[in-house]
Design goal:
151 residues; Helicase, Ruva Protein, domain 3; 6 helices; elongated; iron; cytochrome c-type biogenesis; transmembrane helix; heme; signal
């Protein structure tokens, strides 16, 4: 029991030792640029989180580098260029349209069009199926069955 309590206390203590980043800015514009950049850039480790939301070590390093660039007076485009040059287009949530990312941009449209084509072909095939006309024997059998059901 004591070992369990020790483990629980150790887990809570280790999580409380997590570092909290505090940055001071000279102007509100710098702070706004920093917040915009860390919200716009993707964490390369987490992939579905931006730098602001990620707690990975790489995200912390990238936030630190973003802070350095902002404090050095770099513009938004300069920060993006630095990150893309170093980490590739994957660091952006909205990569630019170019030959290497063309499939990424056109892929959903292609899947939609192929799906639409398959749906139309399926529906068209169903409407083209014609049933054979009923023979006289079939009409008589149907009339008998309907006559049975009448009270």
């Amino acid at each position: 029991m004591r070992a369990f309590l020790f483990a629980v206390i150790w887990l809570f203590a280790s999580s409380s030792m997590a570092s909290i980043e505090v940055h001071t800015f000279q102007t509100p514009q710098q702070e706004a640029l920093y917040n915009e950049m860390i919200a716009e850039l993707r964490c390369l480790v987490c992939q579905n989180q931006n730098l602001a939301d990620s707690n990975s070590a790489l995200a912390q390093d990238l936030r630190g580098k973003t802070y350095e660039l902002v404090m050095a007076g770099s513009s938004r485009d300069a920060i993006i260029d630095f990150m893309v040059t170093r980490y590739g287009d994957f660091v952006l949530y909205k990569p630019p349209v170019k030959q290497s990312t063309l499939l990424l941009w056109l892929g959903p449209l292609l899947f939609f069009l192929v799906g639409l084509g398959v749906l139309f072909a399926f529906l068209r095939g169903k409407t083209r199926q014609t049933s054979e006309p009923l023979s006289d024997a079939d009409h008589q059998r149907a009339a008998q069955l309907l006559a049975k059901d009448k009270p």
